[in-house]
Write a structure and sequence with these properties.
transport; 73% helix; Sugar/inositol_transpt; transmembrane helix; Growth Hormone, Chain: A; MFS_Sugar_Transporters; single chain
Length: 288
């Protein structure tokens, strides 16, 4: 199906699908903030008592996403980048169904866990998918910024749209991905060279034998060969002190510092507890 869409149009279609997936990420993060203090919502789930129950329901989504992100490397290569994203969409739809029909504390908690696991798949695979589909290194930074902007835009939407609507993002993004290829790098890594060649050609909008296509093909295969050599020497110590070309320790430290900076400015308070904060500060008229 994607053979009819090539070059820039193909890349923009992939960007749209991944953008919807990341908007879902932001939507799910803020979806409880819009109504977690409403009495109707509390009555529906059994009116739980105690100061930690509602925060636990909100935050367990992040825990599930975190654990799934750690699990993705163990199966992501087998099912592909696109397959991992599609698995995430399926889990989000199941989680949305459980949450929107919840009439007990247990059901909404399970729904948050399932949706969080789906977001873990999406958050892990979408950046990799877009990076490996980029023809130029200069495309990756702006594309990541675009995806993050859409992620943030999903948060305010969550304050006005019901729980079940999170499925719409998954259905839209997953529907587009059904007609899109996986990444050339994944095809080559799985020895599916013909499909990798075809995808590269479509991304360039040129013939398979074009010099630009063949040059990128050689670069990807050389990179895979180098990665295979580095993997054979991997050990746990490399997570903390790595002198190889992979520089695993530096990548991890950079990731942790970025995430620390996000939490340091109390972003979770804004996402999950904006309504509560306004009410506590006598701004009830502005509460959603």
């Amino acid at each position: 199906m994607f053979s009819k869409v090539q070059g820039k149009a193909l890349y923009q279609t992939m960007s749209t699908a991944c953008g919807a997936a990341f908007m879902l990420y932001g939507y799910d993060a803020g979806v409880l903030g819009g109504f977690q203090e409403r009495q109707e919502f509390r009555d529906a789930i059994g009116n739980p008592q105690g100061p930690y129950i509602i925060p636990l329901i909100a935050s367990i989504y992040n825990l599930a996403a975190g654990f799934m992100s750690l699990a993705v490397p163990f199966f992501g290569m087998q099912i592909g980048r696109k397959g991992t994203i599609q698995l995430g969409h399926l889990l989000v739809c199941i989680g949305a169904l459980l949450q929107s029909s919840a009439y007990s504390l247990t059901q909404i908690t399970v729904g948050r866990i399932v949706a969080g696991a789906g977001i873990g798949c999406i958050a892990s695979a979408v950046p990799t998918y877009m990076a490996e589909m980029s023809l130029e290194a200069s495309q990756r930074g702006p594309e990541t910024q675009y995806q993050l902007a859409l992620l943030i835009s999903g948060i305010p939407l969550a304050y006005w749209i019901p729980l079940a609507m999170q499925s719409c993002f998954s259905i839209f993004s997953g529907g587009l991905l059904l007609f899109l290829p996986d990444t050339p790098r994944w095809y080559y890594a799985r020895d599916r060279h013909e499909e990798g060649d075809k995808t590269l050609a479509h991304l360039h909008g040129k013939d398979v034998n074009d010099e630009a296509v063949q040059t990128m093909r050689r670069d990807i295969l050389a990179s895979l060969h180098e990665d295979d050599g580095e993997k054979s020497d991997f050990n746990i110590k490399m997570l903390f002190w790595d002198h190889s070309n992979l520089q695993i320790d530096r990548r991890l430290r950079t990731s942790f510092l970025i995430l620390f900076a996000q939490q340091f400015v109390r972003i979770n308070m804004l996402v999950y507890f904006a309504t509560t904060s306004r009410q506590k500060n006598r701004l009830d008229s502005f509460a959603f």
